[in-house]
Predict the structure.
Amino acid sequence: MLSLDLSKLEGAVSAEELASLEAETAKAHAALYDPASKGSDFVGWLKLPETYDKEEFARIQKAAAKIRSDSDVLVVIGIGGSYLGARAVLEVFPAEGIDICFAGCSLSPNELKKVEKKIQGKNWSINVISKSGGTTEPAVAFRVFRDLLVKQYGKEADKRIYATTDKARGALKSLADANGWETFVVPDDVGGRYSVLTAVGLLPIAAAGVDITELMGGAYDAMVRFDERSMENPVWQYAAARNVLYRKGKKIELYCTYEPSYSFVGEWLKQLFGESEGKEGKALWPASAQFTTDLHSLGQYIQDGERDLFETVIYVDDTGCDVAIPYSDDNGDNLNYLAGKPLSFVREMAFQGTLAAHKDGGAPSIVLRIPQMTVRALGELLYFFELSCGVSGHILGVNPFNQPGVEAYKKNMFALLGRP
Ligand code: PA5
């Protein structure tokens, strides 16, 4: 069970300041269930761990088993919310027995060529994911990979394309219907960045061999636990604390992890909070860093630069393995004081030392501790942040579920491309 520790906010956020947001936080949580509130059409993710489509879930597992039996590589095509959740989970729990490659998440010819190399001489399939069914980056990548798939398999290619999209609308849905591809649905009431626990995330995750029942189980535990309507609820504490910090002048929330494999959870969080809250000239800038690596690069700024940031540290206690530091007869590196100690002990001391140093330097931390690196714990973490983001967005006074700002670059790009 994850735990939240606000003690390293001492001096930056007082207990009274936190308590003063209780009524606003209660209202914000209630707003998620209020049909008259902003974005109320997009809260399907709230109860998803309980209400998810069981028939589709079974189909996802069946399709994943087929992909694992007939493919060496699965090319997952999608961008933003149609990509980051699955990628975040698979960085923590890498695919076994199959290579999962991501394409269509940039417009880089170089990246596309890298994926092309991975499928050469291999059996492979495609999972194309787009809620709208028409986003340029994945649509272009899909055209390229579909062409390659048809060249390799002919008509059988249609049995190797899995489309995750809207249940009725969009170019991808029309193509899928016309060609008989197996389709999975992005529910109408779940936006891209909240879709990791739909087929959007679940099919690639299951195809990788990761237990999606456990992932949903962790999210279910979180859904039950974090529904508590009081300041005892870690979601309330986190959402309130980050809003107090923002109101007191902090501009940046730095998501830090001590596990490199969690760095894509940071990418997922940047989209979740950036797209949900960054509107109407408001919001914290969500950034991410990987410790201790970045303590040797960004550490100087965090300790000593502009005092405009705080950290949200995601710390995993037990990663399931450890390394004992060996004794050395010559002790030429003077490290014998650590001989016999596990590496995780050194990491824990670095974590504690960093928290204290950054607190003293005016960069306070919110700490989320995860006892074990399990799929279930990751499901819990994902839901914790989704709910926190919904509550926090309502405290901020924005609609946490739209993204009008992402259309601006597309308009210009289409004009420059001469789209009819
Ligand atoms: O969260 C969002 O809504 C966006 O990041 C979308 O997921 C992203 O733009 C991809 O959109 P689509 O799934 O329609 O291709």
Observations:
- Residues 79-82, 130-132, 135, 138, 191-193, 275, 403 surround 5-phosphoarabinonic acid (CB under 6 Å).
- The chain has two domains: 3-31+218-404, 48-210.
- Residues 253 and 307 are 12 Å apart (CA to CA).
- The first helix runs from residue 15 to 19.
